Protein 1
Amino acid sequence: MESDVLVVDDSAAIRKILQRVLRQTGMAIRSIHEAGDGEEALSVLGQHSVHLVLSDINMPKMDGLQLLASLKASAQWRNIPVVMITTEGGETKVAEAVKLGAAGYVRKPFTADQIKEKLVGILEPALPL
Amino acid sequence: MNLHSAIVQSITESAGNVFTTMLGSEIASGEVSIETTSPEPNDGVVSFIGIAGSWAGTGSISCSPALACRVCAAMLMTEATAVNEDVLDAVAELTNMIIGSVKTDLEHHLGPLGLSIPTVVFGRNFKTRSAATTEWINVRFDWDGEPLLIKMCLAPSDKAHAIHHGGGNQTCALEV
């Protein structure tokens, strides 16, 4: 099954990089949606079916931890895996994300292999041509 | 290791790691200096990010418009010939990753610290000033012949407040 992914980061640069990296992972990805903060992410989720959320933590308006908490409190979205991708390497933020139910954690700067490693078991690999 | 050395080492390692991982390129570190006077006027691109907690300060990256375009091109794998939104965003993210990594390293010594959203300025003949601190650690880098400057000022929050109101310069003087 092909999956739909939502990338949430206030940096357009990181959203573009993640678009490219996700296409390189070899996972079966149908569409990649983007949002610049947690509020925008909730709006996108209301309009599109999404199988995975990759989210930054430090963002204006609604940050990644608030977004994660909102998703886990929602009957509709609580089962969507959320992988945090952030410069925040501190134990406090990591522990909070894990406690809130994050499916994984990748620290910036990241490689394509690190992203792929986190997605194994969450997304299915693309069928060979 | 004192805090000054820890900051210099962390800036050097973080910049090298970010350039290798995100830009696919090596960057050479060079001169380290302390800036205690008002900085010279800037030309080009300057990005700032605030650090807050029991210690507070600012991390900054300065470079020429040409180098900023090269950062954007390498990071986004797209052509960039003039400073535009993509270029400013790429420099902001570069700052976020490098200073964010330094912040994480320093948390082992200083406890939890917070990071602000980066701000990028592009222009000519502008001056910058931190209201709280007068001493900056400057680490100069060379990326294929183009200079890039990473700066950081950091002081205990209560000291930063005292400095703001005319106290002495305590930045980075403590042993950790």
Protein 2
Amino acid sequence: MLKKLGLAVACIGAIGLFASYGAADEKPEVNKKEIKPAMLFGDMSLVTQDLLNRAGDDGNNFLHTNGNYLQTRYYPARQINVSNVSRLRPAWIFQTDVIDSLETSPIVVNGTMYVTTSFDHVFALNARTGEEIWAYRHKMGPITTYCCGPNNRGVAVYGDMVYLATLDSKLVALDAKTGEVKWTKEIADPEKGYSETMAPTAVKGMILIGTNGGEYGIRGFVKAFDAKTGDLKWTFYTIPEDTKGVWATTDATGRDMHRDIEAEKAAYQKLGPDLYQKLGGGVWQNPAVDLETNRIYFVVGNPSPDLDGSIRPGDNLYTDSLVSLDLDTGKYICHFQYIAHDVWDLDAVSPTIITQVADKDGKMIKGVLHAGKTGHVYVHDAKDCSLIRYSEAMVPQENMWVLPTKDGARMLPGANGGVEWSPMAIDPHAGLAYAINLHQPMTYHVESTKYPDGKLWLGGAFKVIPTEEQWGNITAVNYNTGKIQWQVKTQQPMIGGILATAGGLVFAGEGNGHFKAYDSQTGSALWDFQAGAGVNAPPSSYTVEGKQYIVVGAGGNTQIDYKRGNSIIAFSLPD
Amino acid sequence: MGRGKGTLALLLVSAGAAPSFADPIEDKAAICSACHGENGIPNDKAIPIIWGQNEGYIYIELRDMKKGARKNDQMAPIVENLERDDMMALAAYFAAKPWPNLDQPRAAPADANHFAVMANSGQCGACHQSGFKGAGTQPRLAGQTYEYLLKTMLDFRSGARANNDWMTSLLKTFSEDDIKQMARVLAGL
């Protein structure tokens, strides 16, 4: 159902123009220059590899879930900027027919937008008007096993196809012009705990996809399928057969994790050989792709069962790790484990970002960023995955790493983070990474339980402490120093994602329905819109006919239980 | 489905005879109706509503009962000879039926508010989803019978219901009064 602008404004109501940024009509010189349409690349009737490669400089399209292969979520258009964002208003609202969590990153190709909903429906929209072009409604199989809501984070585009991964663990290729199914492949068996919520990544004729299931005793993987035929090209298991690792006693920041290494070694003698088959290690989010070195970088989630380490001795490789592979073959190149033998589910979920970073000597090198549930932004050397530095903690950390107990041990952060699956954005010119965080105090309870045949397997429970305050924040971290540059507290824990733009802005939504723009250098709030449902999805941006838009889903969130909705809302400046 | 089929089915079950599942789906389902109700309203309030329950959940429970992971004396002879296809067919059949409205009383606002705090603490909605209607292999709780909800949660808590250890661990952190309140609120949704 398409709502006309006037009705949409009347129903939802844009609010909050911030006077401190002066007259809205004043445009600095730099912005006048940029108002012209951005460059077009390649043959726009097809999504070519060349077009995908240049996405970072493409101010018309939004071609990757996280903006570009480096996953910077830094959008190059600056028509909407710090001086005029206060005048931003809804251009159109598209309402899907699914009122549930929206985690989609809208993808825009030459004026056509592709969005997904909970339960894996896809809509192709006119990006200028919001008018529906086609809809694909996934016929879900009866068996779905997923922990945190019926989410879908979006599509990948490649050639004349649109790719979707589903809760019943299928990879579906659709005709980009009609939504017709071209082929469907099973990624893994959903009855064994496999499911999909991430968007695929399209590169070099392949469709890359990870898997959920770290809460279900799966063996995690990243798979590459042929983009044309759907044939499997390679599989990398995130859990190698030898999972013991180096018996690390401290985490990436040097804090003692209170492991009983001798007891674990003894247990490993007995349990070690079979551990890999059910050790978890899901991959929830897209890899960053480095086409210069032909490598991908992604993070691997928690071991199974989450809280009970007694039955999975060893470091549980490569859970809670950054991993790099050869793109063509899926062969292992390097890894770095943040938390060996994790018993808190404080795993690695938020997608990686490739950018130039200062090494320990201040020399600029190619680096990889990841924001942890721990509340740190980790900065790595892309060459060997080694850790260069980690940021100041973005949320309170208390009692780390107390071991879970039968009656529950309090530790901060809670198991949702820190930074959950929410992608960061960066401003590579300022050396700032923007992360959204949760503060949700929890107790960690452990209880040893046997593998439950593909059902939820936590080995205990996490419990939010009902008497303690919860909140969130947006944090800008200087990744060349690890220092926090600015921080804005929000009423509720943050989940969804963030977008930075060359207009000097970052955009992020909240569970209470507010969708806000901030000055990316200072954190000053410049604009606020009440969307009527939780804005818990990563925003995108694009330009059509010379007009820049910001677009975001407002559908709430299942995991944190924010008010559900069904709106895709595009914003632009008035004519 | 006539009452006669239900009565016959009940007699078969009571006598411990293994039912035949070579019949069309409606005949197979008639056995279920003897307890779960011919119109979707269970004959005994401690027996769950299965009309309109989520397909994947019904299948998983039948599977677990056959495996012995979920113990139930009444169901054991029913599931004994069920093959996976039978279970899937029964699950699809009952999932397609309308959820019956038992018209159970809506919780008082104070109870509902306390429930919201408890549900947030237990992160119940992460699995049972919007409106506690579940999806896939996650069960609908909203509008289920109070008696069944209470018994199930207490059985999870004690370990008597042993096919989802996560629920056992979680419910151990709640008092019996809390669980009664949760059952009341969920039944009234």
